[in-house]
Amino acid sequence: MNPITPDQLNALVGVARGRSVEAIAEASGEPVNTVASRLRTAMLKLEARTYAQAVAEAFKAGIITKEML
C-alpha cells in the first residue's frame, strides 16, 4: 500500500470526527474538490468504497489512532 500523505490523513481524521467534506475544506482553507480528491485517493489506497470504510481501514492499519480524535 502506498503511504497516506499528511493531507490525506488530515481529511480522514476530519471524517472520523464526523465533519463533512465542506467543513474539512473550510477549516483547512482549501477547495472542497481538493479535499474530496484527497479522500478518494485515500480510499483507493485503503481499498475502501466509502469514506466511513476508509476511516475504519485507517484505524485497523494504525494510521488513525483514537488520540488523533
Uncertain segments are none
Q: Helix/strand/pairing class, anyone?
A: mainly alpha
Write down the overall geometry.
globular
Report on the biggest sheet: none
Radius of gyration: 11 Å
The chain-level mean pLDDT equals 96
| Tally of DSSP helical segments | 4
Measure the end-to-end span: 24 Å
Overall strand count = 0
The secondary-structure element order is: HHHH
Share of residues in strands: under 5%
The portion of residues assigned to helices is 55-70%
Describe the structure in your own words.
With 69 residues, the chain is mainly α. 62% of the residues lie in helices and 0% in strands. It has four helices and no strands. Helix 1 crosses helix 4 (51-60) and helix 2 (21-28) crosses helix 3 (32-45). The longest helix has 14 residues, at 32-45. The protein starts with 5 loop residues before the first helix and ends in a 9-residue tail after the last helix.
Describe this structure in a few short sentences.
With 69 residues, the chain is an all-alpha fold.
What tags apply to this protein structure?
mainly alpha; 69 residues
Question: Topology, pairings included?
Answer:
Blueprint: H1 6-16, H2 21-28, H3 32-45, H4 51-60
Helix pairs in contact: 1-3, 1-4, 2-3
